[in-house]
C-alpha cells in the first residue's frame, strides 16, 4: 500500500515546474515537503490528487493510476484554494465534503471547529486568511483518507492555533496511522512532527531521507571571525553569517575537536534547509 | 522623541477592539507586538498611523497629535493592505511612495528587490501572497522614517526569504536606529530581533517589558507524568502538555532543585506567549 510517483514532468508555458520527480509515500509516516516559493511543491500535490495533469510520468495509488474515483477516494488535499460556491456556509461545506468521503467524521469536524473557534454559520468567502486555513484544517482532520496532504496549512494562524494544529495532527496520526504530507515554510515547527523529508528545488528532489539522517552529516560552529576563517578553510561550508566580529557557519561533515574559542551548536532542520538553499544559490 | 499612545479605545459594531490602551514607543528599540488573531494588533497600528480613527484617546508623535502631515511623515506602516491602483507596476509604486517620503532610498529599494527576486515590472495585483509581502518589505526598508511598523511582514515567505528579511531589518536598524515595531505570529523567529514586547489580548495590553525580563520569572520542566503531578502541585502552572507517559509544563516562578527524573528546559518567547494565552483562556 503506497503512492508511487514515477518520472513526473510538468511545464507551465516556459517554466519547467517539475523535472522527472519520482518518490514513494507509505502509511505510517509524517512527511515534510520542503522547498522555497516556486520550487514546485503545490504543483506536485495538485498532480498527485489529479487537480492538475502532468505532462509525463505516472502516479499510482495502491497500485491503481490516479484517474479512477476509487484511487482518488484515498487521497485528500488541504490546499490553498477553495472550490465552494460563493455564498456557501462552513456547515454546508462540511456536509458537501462528507458526502464524497464515506469515512468523514462529522462529530470530529464539529469538535475541531469549536476548538479553533470557527463559526459553522459563517460564509466561507468571508473568512479571514487565518480562519480560511482553519476551515481547511478542519476538513483535513475529519476526512479519514489513507493519504492526507496539507499545503501551507498554517498560513495566517497565530502561535496558539499553530500549536493546536500540530497537536491534533499527532493525535489523529496516533489513532489512524495514515500517510501525512506537510508542505510548509515553517520548517522549524514542523520538524517536531515530520520523520522523513523531501527537499525540492527548481522542480527536482534535491535531498530526501529520514530527517535525522539528513542532518547527521552537518553541524554549526561559531566564534571570532579570524579564528573561524582559519577553521573553515578547506572544509565544506554550507553557509556563513557574520554579525559584528562573530561568525557562525553550517558545515557539512563530522565535527572534530575544535580550537579554543570556537563553539559547536545544534543544527535544526530549518537551518539545514536554508544552508542547502544558499549552497545551491552559489552553484 | 517618542510616540505616546494614551487611553485609546475603539469599537467596531458590538466588538470592543481596543480597551484603554496606553503605551510609549522610542527610537533605539525593536518592539514586538504579539497577540492572537483578533487581539487588536492591526487596529492599533492603523490608529497610530491615522488610517483608522480611535473612538477615544490620543496618539502624539514627537509631541504633535497624529493628524498633521508633519507628524504622519514620521511613521510608515507596512500593512496587509495595498492602496495602489489595480494596474500599477512595482517600479511605479516605489516612485509614488518615494514622492511622499523625502528620505526614501530608491537605490536601496532596488537592491532589496533584487535580493528577494522581486520583478520591478510586475503588476502589484498579480503578485503572489509571498511576493506581496516582499513588495511591502522593500517599501518599509527604504522609507527611512523614524518610526517603522511591520504588520505580519513575513506572511507567505519561505524560510530563506524570512531569514533575509530579519537580516535586513537588523542591518537597517544598526545604521539607522529608529523605532521598529514587528507585529507577527512567528514569535520564535522574531524573538532573535525584538528587545521589548507588548503582549495584547482582547484589546488590552496584558504584559509588556524587555523580553528577557518577561521570561525571567518562568521556566519549563518535563518528566514522567506521576512525578510531574507531584512536583506541580501547589505551583503556578501556566500550561501543560502530555505525550504518552511524559508531561511538560511551563511554570511561573524561580526553579528550585528538582527531584530526580525531572528536567528543566529553556523557555522561549513563543512558548511563554502560548502559555500565557492558555492561562488566560482558563480564566
TrEMBL record, chains A, B:
Record SMART domains: AAA (SM00382)
Domain ABC transporter residues, every copy: 3-227
Keywords: ATP-binding, Nucleotide-binding, Transport
Gene Ontology terms for molecular function: ATP binding; ATP hydrolysis activity
Pfam family, any one: ABC_tran
Domain of life: Bacteria
PANTHER family: ABC TRANSPORTER ATP-BINDING PROTEIN ALBC-RELATED
Name of the protein in its database record: ABC transporter ATP-binding protein
UniProt source species: Oscillibacter hominis
Amino acid at each position: 500500500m503506497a503512492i508511487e510517483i514515477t518520472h513526473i514532468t510538468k511545464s507551465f508555458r516556459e517554466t519547467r515546474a517539475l523535472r522527472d520527480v519520482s518518490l514513494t509515500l507509505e502509511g505510517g509516516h509524517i512527511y515534510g515537503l520542503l522547498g522555497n516559493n516556486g520550487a514546485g511543491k503545490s504543483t506536485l500535490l495538485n498532480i498527485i490528487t489529479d487537480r492538475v495533469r502532468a505532462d509525463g510520468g505516472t502516479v499510482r495509488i495502491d497500485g491503481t493510476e490516479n484517474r479512477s474515483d476509487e484511487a482518488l477516494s484515498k487521497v485528500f488535499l488541504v490546499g490553498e484554494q477553495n472550490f465552494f460556491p460563493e455564498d456557501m456556509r462552513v456547515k454546508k461545506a462540511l456536509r458537501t465534503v462528507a458526502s464524497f468521503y464515506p469515512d468523514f467524521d462529522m462529530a470530529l469536524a464539529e469538535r475541531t471547529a469549536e476548538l479553533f473557534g470557527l463559526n459553522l454559520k459563517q460564509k466561507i468567502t468571508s473568512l479571514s486568511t487565518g480562519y480560511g486555513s482553519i476551515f481547511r484544517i478542519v476538513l483535513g482532520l475529519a476526512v479519514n483518507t489513507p493519504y492526507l496532504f496539507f499545503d501551507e496549512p498554517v498560513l495566517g494562524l497565530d502561535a496558539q492555533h499553530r500549536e493546536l494544529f500540530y497537536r491534533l495532527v499527532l493525535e489523529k496520526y496516533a489513532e489512524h496511522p495514515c500517510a501525512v504530507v506537510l508542505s510548509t515554510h515553517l520548517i522549524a515547527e514542523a520538524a517536531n512532527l515530520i520523520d522523513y523529508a523531501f527537499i525540492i528545488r527548481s522542480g527536482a528532489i534535491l535531498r530526501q531521507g529520514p530527517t535525522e539522517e539528513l542532518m547527521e552529516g552537518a553541524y554549526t560552529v561559531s566564534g571570532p571571525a579570524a579564528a573561524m576563517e582559519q577553521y573553515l578553510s578547506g572544509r565544506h561550508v554550507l553557509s556563513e553569517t557574520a554579525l559584528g566580529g562573530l561568525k557562525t557557519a553550517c558545515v557539512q561533515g563530522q565535527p572534530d575537536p575544535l580550537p579554543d574559542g570556537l563553539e559547536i551548536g545544534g543544527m535544526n532542520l530549518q537551518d539545514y534547509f536554508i544552508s542547502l538553499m544558499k549552497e545551491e544559490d552559489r552553484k
